Amino acid sequence: MARRRRIYEGKAKVLFEGPEPGTLVQYFKDDATAFNNSKHGIISGKGVLNNRISEYLMLRLAEIGVPTHFVRRLNMREQLVREVEIIPIEVVIRNIAAGSLCKRFKIEEGTTLPRSIVEYYYKSDELGDPLVSEEHITAFGWATTQDIDDMLALGLRINDFLTGLFLGVGLRLVDFKLEFGRLYENEEVRVVVADEISPDNCRLWDAKTNEKMDKDRFRNDLGNVKEAYQEVARRLGVLSEADIDLKTPRVVN
Ligand code: TMP
């Protein structure tokens, strides 16, 4: 494959210059990090699975009119996306208490929240992604009031849709993180979903047993991490091709 210009390398993905202006190639790595990079590991095959899962979910969202950066999957580990200006805010939506919410407010894990809770975190590895309010976001110029309105409306719609989609395959959407970007086209700008949606940034519990099927298995050393991601992919009906490739080691560039 021809050498491509690397635009950005994150903890789980690499962005390369795309084939046409305004596009990027998003490459999914097997690297996993937790607790702001203090824990690092490799989950063999995770990149292949997340590429598939995120493709599937982004396509389902596009079908209901939620704009995303996704264009098409290119191969086992790469997808073509629209180039967007990333808004440096992580939008977390919670339906059931877990993770940092339990720690912060001493709530028992698994408690159903009286309503979905939306939180904003400022994307900064240096600061450890601090929780911020709308006041911080607008005062420091990270996003406008209009951006926040768009992220909130899209986030809640995505939450309702994905909650139903996952429940249909026996999974509870406990919480998840979204990233958004500004897409500039024809002198207009709109806020679209960016990054990825996968078990790396969603908490998914089996609806019957409450077994964790997401990155918490890595964060908390629960074992069978890849198997859990594979099961999520299988239930969504996107496993077949990815599964064959996971069993056959080969060079992926
Ligand atoms: P938290 O309970 O640790 O705040 O995480 C809430 C949700 O956001 C959970 O589904 C995991 C996801 N998340 C990320 O995708 N990236 C992060 O850096 C963090 C802290 C959480």
If you had to describe this structure to a student in words, what would you say it looks like?
The protein folds into two domains: 6-83 and 225-243, Phosphorylase Kinase, domain 1 (2-Layer Sandwich); 88-206, ATP-grasp fold, B domain (D-amino Acid Aminotransferase, Chain A, domain 1). 31% of the residues lie in helices and 32% in strands. The protein has seven helices and 14 strands. The chain has helices at 46-63, 99-105, 134-139, 145-167, 216-219, 225-236, 239-247, and strands spanning 6-9, 13-17, 23-28, 31-34, 39-42, 70-73, 78-82, 85-86, 89-96, 112-122, 131-132, 171-185, 188-194, 202-206. Strands 8, 9, 10, 11, 12, 13 and 14 form a seven-stranded antiparallel β-sheet that branches. A five-stranded antiparallel β-sheet has the order 1-2-3-7-6. Strands 4-5 form a two-stranded antiparallel ribbon. A hairpin with a 4-residue loop joins β6 and β7. α1 packs parallel to α6 (225-236). The protein is globular. The mean pLDDT is 95. Bound molecules: thymidine-5'-phosphate. Thymidine-5'-phosphate (TMP) binds at residues 92, 98-101, 129, 175-177, 201-203. Thymidine-5'-phosphate is lined by residues 92, 98-101, 129, 175-177, 201-203.
List keywords for this structure.
253 residues, alpha+beta, Phosphorylase Kinase, domain 1, D-amino Acid Aminotransferase, Chain A, domain 1, 7-stranded antiparallel beta sheet, 14 strands, 32% strand, globular, binds thymidine-5'-phosphate
